[in-house]
């Protein structure tokens, strides 16, 4: 069987909200999908290469860099701080939070541990917001993400001092977080307007 020469199709974009249209040059039995499971993309996926970079904004690398920075801040910088506190206050594993029976400096150790835990608790929300908003506004998402991370470093350092009130030094993180949240809400409203028409 001789393969049919196919005319090149228009570039595909996941962002297009148009009805499915077969590319030119397909045989008659392939002109419309019989069901969604056998769409044109699924039938041709083995023969074509979809480059991920073509589906993302050109500046999405900044978002990836911000995510990498978040991992370094939370899993390296802050983890080292907790390890140093364990050593300084002689808190053994698997103790998560120390009591007076563990060490006389249990409050100072617990401040460091709680600072790290709080930052980790908020990390999934941060990742979800920075990645989702970065799909449309990569520079804004990255800048807001870096402000958030700088605030979290200040928060961790302040809380780790042993004085829980000093955690408020990390308030600038909310500027980054609220920017990401506002951007996500704007994207949701824009999407609702498109489908409301």
Q: Any idea what the radius of gyration is? A: 25 Å
The CATH topology label of the domain at 60-196 is Four Helix Bundle (Hemerythrin (Met), subunit A)
Structural class by helix and strand composition: mainly alpha
Strand content: under 5%
Largest sheet: none
Total of helices: 5
Output the helix-strand order. HHHHH
Task: Flag low-confidence runs.
Answer: 12-20, 29-38
| Shape assignment | elongated
Per CATH, the superfamily of the domain at 60-196 is Membrane associated eicosanoid/glutathione metabolism-like domain
How many beta-strand runs? 0
Mean pLDDT: 82
Per CATH, which architecture of the domain at 60-196?
A: Up-down Bundle
Q: Give the distance, in angstroms, between the N- and C-terminal Cα atoms.
A: 48 Å
| CATH class category name of the domain at 60-196 | Mainly Alpha
Percentage of residues in helical conformation: 55-70%
Describe, in short, the structure shown.
The chain is 57% helix and 0% strand. The protein has five helices and no strands.
Polypeptide structure, described:
There is one protein chain. The protein is mostly helical. The protein has a domain at 60-196: Membrane associated eicosanoid/glutathione metabolism-like domain (Four Helix Bundle (Hemerythrin (Met), subunit A), Up-down Bundle), CATH 1.20.120.550. Helix content is 57%, strand content 0%. It starts with 39 loop residues before the first helix and ends with a helix. It is found in: Mitochondrion outer membrane. This is Glutathione S-transferase 3, mitochondrial.
